[in-house]
From TrEMBL:
PANTHER family: FMN REDUCTASE (NADPH). SUPFAM superfamilies: Flavoproteins (SSF52218). One of its GO terms (molecular function) is oxidoreductase activity. This is FMN reductase. It comes from the Bacteria. It comes from Saccharopolyspora dendranthemae.
């Protein structure tokens, strides 16, 4: 089977961050289970462009390239820190500027990090419904990492969840037809039509 592409979205704000650490673990485990190319996207690097997109209605060239990578990916790993019992504003904003059909049918593993295990429910009451609304195919296993998981170097329970989620994502990606790159010779969409779509 041809090699597929996984895009990893990390909404961590610090560098390094536990959010990126969890993203790395999930990406590495997925690559052990399937032939995939992995691309990492740190949302903090695009925060200004995401905010400007809300104001102007158009992405910068850099942000547009990231959005196109997500549209063309065969699968997605999406990790956010938990703030106020939900995903971060930066995380939500990124998916708000992504067009509504970009994730339709696309396999996604969701994960989150936080200071306490109490916040793990945010995966099920906030993140999973958001991706269901976007018509993504969300893997059954979600992964939450609390501060104590990193204090012990990542306990075996976290490692087990990472492996299970990565295996589920790999299986979902391999079951799905490969995403086709857009035809560069396809007739372009008229500007008036693009503008009307932005206004709707």
């Amino acid at each position: 089977m041809s090699e597929r592409t996984i895009v990893v979205i990390s909404a961590g704000l610090s560098n390094p961050s536990s959010t990126r650490m969890l993203a790395d673990r999930l990406a590495t485990a997925t690559a052990r289970n399937a032939q995939v190319n992995v691309r990492f996207v740190e949302l903090r690097d695009h925060a200004k462009d995401i905010a400007n997109n809300f104001v102007t209605g158009f992405p910068s060239p850099e942000l547009d390239e990231v959005l196109e990578a997500v549209r063309g990916a065969d699968g997605l790993i999406a990790i956010t820190p938990i703030f106020q019992a939900s995903y971060s504003g930066l995380f939500k904003s990124f998916f708000d500027v992504l067009d509504k059909e970009a994730l339709a049918g696309k396999p996604v593993v969701i994960g989150a990090t936080g200071g306490s295990a109490r916040h793990s429910l945010a995966l099920e009451h906030a993140m999973r419904p958001m991706f269901a609304y976007l018509h993504a195919v969300v893997a059954p296993t979600s992964v939450y990492a609390a501060s104590e998981d990193w204090a012990t170097g990542g306990d075996s329970t976290l490692a087990d969840r990472v492996e299970r989620a990565a295996g589920e994502l790999a299986a979902l990606v391999e079951q799905r037809p490969a995403v086709q790159a857009p035809d560069p010779f396809e007739e372009p969409v008229p500007f008036e039509q693009l503008l009307a779509q932005q206004q709707n």
